[in-house]
Amino acid sequence: NGVHKIDMYLNAALDLLGGEDGLCQYKCSDGSKPVPRYGYKPSPPNGCGSPLFGVQFDIGIPSMTRCCNHHDRCYDTCGNKKNDCDEQFQTCLSKICRDVQKTLGISESVQACESTVQLLFDAVIHLGCKPYLDSQRAACMCHYEGKTDL
C-alpha cells in the first residue's frame, strides 16, 4: 500500500544520510543488541567500488584494493561500528601513500596517491552509511526476529 511505500522511501533516505540520528549506527528497533546471524556468509569483497552508486575507485594499486576489501569485511561483521571500520580504512590507505613516498621519494606520485586516498575516504564517510547498514542487516539479527521455523 501507499503508506508502506512512503515508509520504505523514508527509511532509504535516512540510511543514505546517516540513519535516524545522523551517526549511522545499526540498532535493533526493540533496543536489544544485534547478534551475529547464524550461518551468515558475507558476499566476497568488491575492491574499491560500490554497487549502490556504480562508483569504481579501484585504480590498480593492489594494496589499495586490500584496504578496500578489509573495509568491506569490517562492515560485514556484525557489531562492528562504522566509525571504527572507517578509521581502520583511513589508517590502511594512509600507509600506502607513506610507502609510495619511501619508495619513490617526494614526487607527483605521492600527491596523486594522497588525492585518491582523500577522495576514497570522503566517499566512504559521506556515502558509506547505506552500504554499512545493509551489511549489518545481512550479518546480524535482532532477538525479536526469532526463529521462524519452530
Structure in words:
There is one protein chain. With 150 residues, this protein is mainly alpha-helical. The protein has one domain (2-144). Helix content is 56%, strand content 5%. It has helices spanning 2-17, 62-75, 82-104, 108-127, 129-139; strands at residues 35-36, 49-50, 55-56, 140-141. The strands form two sheets. The chain has a two-stranded antiparallel sheet. A two-stranded antiparallel sheet has the order 2-3. Strand 2 (49-50) and strand 3 form a beta hairpin. The longest helix has 23 residues, at 82-104. 19% of the residues are buried. InterPro entries: PLA2_histidine, PLA2G12, PLipase_A2_dom_sf. PA2 catalyzes the calcium-dependent hydrolysis of the 2-acyl groups in 3-sn-phosphoglycerides. Does not exhibit detectable activity toward sn-2-arachidonoyl- or linoleoyl-phosphatidylcholine or -phosphatidylethanolamine.
Short note summarizing the structure:
It is found in: Cytoplasm; Secreted. This protein is mostly helical and 150 residues long. It has helices at residues 2-17, 62-75, 82-104, 108-127, 129-139; strands at residues 35-36, 49-50, 55-56, 140-141.
Total count of strands = 4
- What is the mean pLDDT? 78
**SS content category:** mainly alpha
Order of helices and strands: HEEEHHHHE
Describe the strand arrangement of the main beta sheet, using strand numbers.
1-4
Low-confidence stretches: 15-21
Could you tell me the strand content as a percent range?
5-15%
Taking the alpha carbons of the first and last residues, their distance comes to 30 Å
Number of helical segments with 4 or more residues: 5
The largest sheet is:
2 strands, antiparallel
Shape: elongated
Tell me the domain tally.
1
Please give the radius of gyration in angstroms: 18 Å
* Fraction of residues in helix: 55-70%
Function: PA2 catalyzes the calcium-dependent hydrolysis of the 2-acyl groups in 3-sn-phosphoglycerides. Does not exhibit detectable activity toward sn-2-arachidonoyl- or linoleoyl-phosphatidylcholine or -phosphatidylethanolamine.
GO molecular function, one term: calcium ion binding
Protein name: Group XIIA secretory phospholipase A2
InterPro entries: PLA2_histidine (IPR033113), PLA2G12 (IPR010711), PLipase_A2_dom_sf (IPR036444)
